[in-house]
Amino acid sequence: MPLFTTTYYIGLNDQPFLEGDKLLKFLEFHKVKVPSNYRNDKAVKEAIECISICIRNNIIEEINKCSAINLQIDELTDHSLDKALTMNVRHFSNGRYVSRFLGLIDVPKGDGK
């Protein structure tokens, strides 16, 4: 469970994969055994992708149970002036409104170059 929690923390907090090694050393300091095949960026990336698929499937299942949803799409610009669309869905679940992040879509430049 500590390896899952560490990987989940990296993905949730948008940390670079390089942070994974520091966190694994932290786990080992606290006597958590870390297999050698977890000690590379590729392993961390693959683990985050697996977690992402599980979370996405849970969101889809949650949305499919709803009678109505609100899809929110907004444009954003990052610090390098690249544009993207952010997609969120809002719905009513278990007696409360819930907002879920669905993803980002890159927007091609519209300058004709």
Provide a descriptive summary of the structure in words.
This protein has 113 residues and is an alpha+beta fold. It has two domains: 1-65; 67-113, no CATH class. The chain is built from three helices and three strands. A hairpin with a 2-residue loop joins β2 (83-93) and β3. The radius of gyration is 18 Å and the shape is flat.
Structural class: alpha+beta
Describe the sheet with the most strands.
3 strands, antiparallel
The percent range for strand residues is 25-35%
Extract low-pLDDT stretches: none
Q: End-to-end distance, in Å? A: 49 Å
Number of helices: 3
How many independent structural domains?
A: 2
Number of strands: 3
- Structural shape: flat
Question: What is the radius of gyration?
Answer: 18 Å
Helix content: 40-55%
Strand order of the largest sheet: 1-2-3
How would you state the average pLDDT, rounded? 77
Helix and strand element order: HHHEEE
Helix and strand arrangement:
Blueprint: H1 2-12, H2 19-29, H3 41-64, E1 69-77, E2 83-93, E3 96-106
Antiparallel strand pairs: 1-2, 2-3
Helix pairs in contact: 1-2, 1-3
